[in-house]
Amino acid sequence: MGNWFGYPAQKRSVHLSQAYTRLGDTKSARAEQEAAEAPRDALTGRLRAQLTEALSV
Question: What is the pTM of this model?
Fold first, then answer.
């Protein structure tokens, strides 16, 4: 995905989440944390599907 001053989108979201937390904006912090976790969750789903398919052969 896109970048922010050379940072991958996931890393950008993690840093923004931490900044929002320190500022006391927990709603924005949570939204950024969820954005940071989305690529991991998608990868986990694909990996699970591949493993299920491989094990069912």
Answer: 0.60
